């Protein structure tokens, strides 16, 4: 009799513990409380025309570019972006309103081995930054209230990068 009573108590304890368990959360249910809010992705895919309409910047892919994708990055101010491949190298071209040359617009944060400050043919300030390996680079130019920059992590060629930026500026 004691054994049956002990068995019944053990089964009741197991059922009690099972009843206290929680159901698994499905992928569609939010995790946490109402204050636990995820951040919205500030980067929205766009088209060249829609980006020009919303930001005022006409980001033009260079002749021969492939895999072109335009984006608008929300913030204050809004950043216009074009990603593309040219001659096997991936590039990111950005334009953003500002009060002066701002190389950080590129989103590349390295210890730059070489930084060359200069001026475009029209006298606007420019900057070319490259890492010690020569793989990562940013060319930036300030023109008419905006910083224009192109960056790559596939090998730097200042002349090509400068032409990409200046051709876009000329198309405005």
What does this structure look like?
The protein is α+β, with helices and mostly antiparallel strands. The chain has a single domain (43-170), classed as 3-Layer(aba) Sandwich (Protein Transport Mog1p, Chain A), CATH 3.40.1000. Helices cover 23% and strands 32% of the residues. The chain is built from three helices and eight strands, in the order αβαβββββββα. The protein has helices at 2-19, 48-55, 158-170; strands spanning 43-46, 66-73, 79-86, 89-97, 114-119, 125-130, 137-143, 146-152. The chain has an eight-stranded antiparallel beta sheet, with helices on one face. A hairpin with a 6-residue loop joins strand 6 and strand 7 (137-143). The model has no long low-confidence stretch (mean pLDDT 83).
Strands, helices and their partners?
Layout lengths: L1 H18 L23 E4 L1 H8 L10 E8 L5 E8 L2 E9 L16 E6 L5 E6 L6 E7 L2 E7 L5 H13 L2
Antiparallel strand pairs: 1-2, 2-3, 3-4, 4-8, 5-6, 6-7, 7-8
What's the helix-strand series? HEHEEEEEEEH
**What number is the mean pLDDT?**
83
The number of helical segments is 3
As a percent range, the share of strand residues is 25-35%
Main beta sheet = 8 strands, antiparallel
The neighbouring-strand order within the major sheet is 1-2-3-4-8-7-6-5
The helix-and-strand class reads alpha+beta
In CATH terms, what is the architecture? 3-Layer(aba) Sandwich
Uncertain stretches: none
Tally of distinct domains: 1
**What is the CATH T-level topology?**
Protein Transport Mog1p, Chain A
Helix content: 10-25%
Radius of gyration: 27 Å
Distance between the termini: 93 Å
Work out the number of β strands. 8
Bulk shape: elongated
Specify the CATH class.
Alpha Beta
């Amino acid at each position: 009799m004691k054994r049956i009573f002990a068995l019944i108590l053990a089964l009741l304890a197991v059922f009690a513990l099972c009843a206290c368990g929680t159901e698994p959360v499905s992928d569609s249910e939010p995790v946490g409380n109402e204050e636990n809010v995820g951040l919205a992705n500030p980067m929205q895919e766009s088209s060249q025309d829609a980006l020009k309409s919303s930001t005022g910047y006409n980001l033009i892919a260079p002749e021969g570019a492939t895999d072109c994708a335009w984006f608008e990055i929300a913030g204050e101010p809004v950043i216009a972006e074009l990603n593309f491949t040219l001659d096997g190298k991936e590039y990111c071209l950005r334009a953003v309103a500002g009060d002066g040359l701002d190389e950080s617009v590129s989103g590349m944060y390295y210890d730059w081995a070489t930084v060359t400050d200069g001026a475009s043919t029209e006298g606007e300030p420019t900057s070319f930054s490259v890492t010690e390996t020569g793989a990562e680079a940013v060319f930036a130019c300030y023109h008419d209230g905006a910083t224009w920059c192109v960056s790559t992590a596939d090998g730097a060629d200042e002349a090509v990068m400068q032409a990409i930026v200046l051709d876009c500026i000329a198309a405005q």
